[in-house]
Amino acid sequence: MCEISIIMLRGENREKVMESVAKILVEGTSIQLTGILGDKMTVEGSIKEINFSRGEALIISK
């Protein structure tokens, strides 16, 4: 199974906001994250990069 960590970018700062994410749903600037255990989080921003080899997705905060 392929899970990734979500990193929020706010200027020069990087903050890990969620780990073990299995699903990412984008609706405009709203991004819904679902973890492998069904936990959910919604963040505002835009996806900059998804890197499966590093196991992370970078989201630019709005």
In a nutshell, what does this entry contain?
The chain has 62 residues and is an all-beta fold. It has no helices and 5 strands.
Can you walk through the features of this model?
By secondary structure, the chain is mainly β. The chain has one domain (4-61). It is 0% helix and 74% strand. A 5-stranded mixed barrel has the order 1-2-3-4-5. The radius of gyration is 11 Å and the shape is globular.
The helical percent reads: under 10%
Q: Count of DSSP E strands?
A: 5
- Distance from N terminus to C terminus (CA atoms, Å) equals 30 Å
Strand content: over 45%
The parts where pLDDT drops under 50 for at least 5 residues are none
How would a textbook summarize the main sheet?
5 strands, mixed, barrel
**Given the C-alpha coordinates, what overall shape results?**
globular
- Count of alpha/pi helices: 0
Rg for CA atoms: 11 Å
Q: Order of strands across the biggest sheet?
A: 1-2-3-4-5
How many structural domains are formed by the residues? 1
Mean pLDDT: 96
| Helix-strand sequence | EEEEE
> In terms of structural class, how would the helical and strand content be classed?
mainly beta
Map the helices and strands:
Blueprint (H helix, E strand, L loop, with lengths): L3 E7 L2 E15 L2 E6 L4 E12 L4 E6 L1
Parallel strand pairs: 1-5
Antiparallel strand pairs: 1-2, 2-3, 3-4, 4-5
Fill in the keyword field for this structure.
five-stranded mixed beta barrel, mainly beta, 5 strands, about 60 residues, about 75% strand
